[in-house]
Amino acid sequence: MEFLQKFAMNLLLLMFLFYPVYRKIPKPSLESDHSKLTLLIALAVLAVLILAFYPGVMVYDSYEQYWQAIHFWFVDWHPPVMALLWSATDRIIKGSGGMLLLQLTSIVYSFYLLSRVAARKDKKRYWLPLFAVFLPFVSCCIFFLIKDVSLAVSLLLAFSLWYFYRAAGKLNWPRMLLILLILF
Known about the structure:
Layout: H1 2-24, H2 31-53, H3 60-71, H4 80-92, H5 96-120, H6 136-139, H7 147-168, H8 173-183
Helix pairs in contact: 2-5, 3-4, 4-5, 5-7, 7-8
């Protein structure tokens, strides 16, 4: 306990001493500086998620859907689109790993887009949305390969793309069709 008290006191002292210096550091003004740092953080977050959760957790519904994916035989009890995507990822990485990588990449990319919008709006902590994956209600379910998580991931990705293109003033019909395809 004494160690924690000393650590906290030293941390407060350092923050107090370096705050005037920190305030004088200019904000990066170019969007490329923001995007490079944001991309670096996004890749680090993705690497942590892959190390923590690979190859993912499958439940009975996941096995049922995976069976549909490898046999290319679809029923309407589970979303056929997920089984179709899983059959595509299964050709690259066999088993649940490919679907988990697609799911984690989509989540991190969504939060990356939201961070880019925050950077464009000159928010000081523009990188903060990237750490939303570590919130308990997100991180406790992103490693499950089930249709509910896949639906949440596709909704998040569609919203992030829409918000990113809308904030940049680049929302056009082809991009809107892509967003609708992701919602499908």
